[in-house]
Amino acid sequence: MKNRGFLLSDVINQKRAVQHSRGKRAMLIVNPRARRGGGSIDAARQVLVDAGLQIEEMATSKDENASELISRNADHFDMAIVGGGDGTLNNAAAGLSYSGLTLGVLPLGTANDFARTMGIPADPVKAAEIIAAGHQATVDLGEVNGHLFFNVASIGFSAELAGELTEHAKKRWGTLGYGIVAARILMRSRLFTCYVDHDGTTEKIRTMQVSVGNGRHYGGGMTVEETATADDGWLDLYSLEVDHWWRLLRLLPSLRKGTQGQWDDVRAFKTTEVTIRTKQPRPVNTDGELVTWTPAHFRIRPKSVNVFVPKG
C-alpha cells in the first residue's frame, strides 16, 4: 500500500506539471564547450517534452552571445532553458534580466555553483523535472562595472585561477582541476594593496583576494558566507588578508563552510554597493569569467531573474 501511494503521488505531480507546462514555448541553449555539454541531454529533453513544453534549441555564435540571443527572441518564448556551467549562465544573465524570461537550469558545467546555491540537482534529468514542475523563485544579481553575475566576483587569487584554468583542464579533471591549478598559483601569490569604498568609508587594505558575492557558492564548492542566499538583497564581501600561503591552507575548511569572516585576518561585511580600487589595473573574475578590470564598482540588482527551483 505504501508503494502504491508513492506511485499515485508521482502520477498526480506529473499531471500537475503537464497542466502547468502544456503549450508553453521554451528556448533551449546548450553550451557544447561545457564539461558535459557535448554529451546527450536527450533524456532531460524528453522530460520537458512529456511535460507539454514546446522546445526549440538555439545556438550562440561568434557574433551573438547567449544574452543577445535571448533578448532577440524573447517575444516568442515563455522561458529560457540554459544547459552549461556557471560561465554559461553568466553569459545569459543580462538577457534574462532584460527579457524577464524565467530561467531553467540544466547543470552541465564543472562546478555548477549557482545550481548548488538554488538546490538544483546536478543530474540534468532531475533538473529537467524541476523545470517541468514549474515552481519559481526570484533571485538577485550582482553587477560590476555594468557586468552582471549570479555567484561571485573576485579580484586577486581567484582571478588568476580563472585566467589559468583552461577548458581542457576543467573537462579532464573537473573540480579537481581547480585544486591543481590553485596550488600552483598559491605558491607564488603575494599580497596587493587596494582601497575599498563602501557605506561612506574608505579602507586601505593589503590582501590576497577580495570577493564580492551575490549567491552562496563559488569556485567548485567554496561558500561566500554561511547565511548568504541569492535573494537576500545583499552583497557579501570578504578579503583574505593572510601573509603566508600556509595560513590560507588553514582557512580552507572555513572557506568551504562560509565562516572565514570569523578569522582575524579575514575582513568581511555586507553591503549593497562597494568600489574597489588598485594601484595597477587588475582583472575581475565573475562566475569564472574575466570580464572587466579595476577600478571595480559593485552593486546589488535585487529581484532580477525568475528561476525554476525545487519546491519547498
Automatic annotation (TrEMBL):
Gene Ontology biological-process annotations: phospholipid biosynthetic process
SUPFAM superfamilies: NAD kinase/diacylglycerol kinase-like
GO molecular function, one term: ATP binding
Listed name of the protein: YegS/Rv2252/BmrU family lipid kinase
InterPro entries: ATP-NAD_kinase_N, Diacylglycerol/lipid_kinase, Diacylglycerol_kinase_cat_dom, Lipid_Phosphate_FormReg, NAD/diacylglycerol_kinase_sf, YegS/DAGK_C
Keywords: ATP-binding, Kinase, Nucleotide-binding, Transferase
Every DAGKc domain range: 21-148
Lineage: Bacteria, Pseudomonadati, Pseudomonadota, Alphaproteobacteria, Hyphomicrobiales
Pfam families: DAGK_cat (PF00781), YegS_C (PF19279)
